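Most newcomers find our protein records easier to grasp once they have seen one. To make this concrete, we reproduce a full record directly below:

…
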Amino acid sequence: MELSRITFIREDVSIWLVYAGRGRRFFNDFKESQSVFLNLPGFQASERVFADPTLMRQHLAMSDQVARWLSGARKDPPNRNASAYMAYPHNTGTTDARSFNAELGNIERLFVDAKVGDLVLSPARGHFEQYLIGQISHKWRPADNIEIPRLEGESVPSRKVSWLDLALTRRDFPAKVSKRLQNRHAITRLDEDLYEDVFNMVYPSFVWGEKSKLDVYGDGYRGDDPLQPYASALLVKYVVASAFAHAKGEFLQFQALDANDAIEKYYDKELVEDFAQNFNSPGKFAIIAAVGSLSILASAGLYVATSDPGVPINQVIAEASENIKGAMAGSGKTKATDDLDNYIESMQAVRWNDVRSDLGKKSNDTMPLSLDNKVEVAQRRDEINAR
């Protein structure tokens, strides 16, 4: 079974909306360089500069003059010694002073405040065009400075971003998020009350504190039989119940019951924030629960349950453990790894062989399941490109 990444999200994570310059002129540069940056030609970045407000102001003043020279507003090349510039080059209260301070704030947000693992959203020009969405992958490093052709090869500091394989436009997000994904600022930190909605759209599976999400895909959904998803839905509910039982310390008791009794006793609706089915996406189940280990343990349960009954169960369990650990990404994996090991090692061969031969086989025969979002992303990308 193929797996999408299971992302561990820091509890203090931030989400940043970063525009690719005026008119999104640097959008392709963002994409191709795997980075985001500001229009700062000639800004001589260093850790010392980012740590000293006065130096930062002097370097911004120098960069402003380089930008004026590149645009033709200044005829002679500017001095490239930042110490030659005033930290407060504009009169207080003027439009120029306000613009200067706004850009200073942008620099601080991108190069000081933004942390590794933070999420970045960068919009394309049109409402129906795909966003760039990714995670900041490194602290700022001098080696990440890049030369920008549109700035006549001038170097600018950047933050490296690992762009995710997604196909989302602004209109795909919930209305309250979509409304906030547009403003006049180069970089903005989104309000925290929007984070869960963004995470639900961006990550197929995640762990965020004591909350976890798992997307399960029925890629073979045909749309001509309303009962086709039934066996797969029952299997998903069973493995979710197994994760709840494990969280309660009652996994062995769970395995002593037949499937229906196990679901009846351990599927706790109070822990389920959402269990949605979306047959346009395609045959998709999305489960969000107040159990941090859900996405990890339920992935293991589905991996084992849908495996070929002809393959030795111990081999499948070992493969599930290795592959799910390999799919985990982000800080906070240690406890989840311990939970997974405990769950996997407590799997009883007789019980899970029965699950494979019954629930797993019925699911495979009617609507095979996947934990990989590639089909969904490809379908969505085709829909966007067809517009």
Observations:
- The radius of gyration is 25 Å.
